[in-house]
Specification:
elongated, 4 strands, two-stranded antiparallel ribbon, two-stranded antiparallel sheet
Length: about 110
């Protein structure tokens, strides 16, 4: 009975027999799946800033005539993220949830 308590509480005293080496099972390493966050908005090419700049400047000029408008960056909604959000919201509506918010969309990177 004393050897039972020694092996239970004294782990260093209870070791594997010297004639049998400890065998550790080897698990083949699986390739890690990498996920990339799909951005909600995509930056617009600077060459396409002319029309949105004119519209924003005309709206601002009529509202506050003494103001100055500087358009630094222009973004549009990402169609891929928008489609996934609509599909996820439709699925949530079918299950009967009251509200559903998509905070982020991720996609798996293929390692081909």
């Amino acid at each position: 009975m004393a050897s039972f308590w020694q092996t239970l509480f004294h782990h260093e005293a209870a070791s594997a027999p010297a004639d049998q080496p400890a065998v550790t099972p080897t698990v083949p390493a699986e390739p890690a799946e990498e996920w990339v966050t799909v951005p909600k908005y995509l930056e617009v090419d600077p060459h396409d800033h002319l029309i949105p700049s004119l519209v924003a400047a005309s709206v601002t000029a009529t509202a506050v005539p003494d103001s100055q408008l500087v358009l630094k960056k222009l973004y549009v909604q990402n169609p891929e993220a928008q489609l996934v959000s609509v599909i996820a919201s439709s699925c949530a509506l079918a299950t009967g949830d009251g509200q559903f918010v998509v905070k982020s969309v991720r996609k798996r990177v293929d390692q081909h």
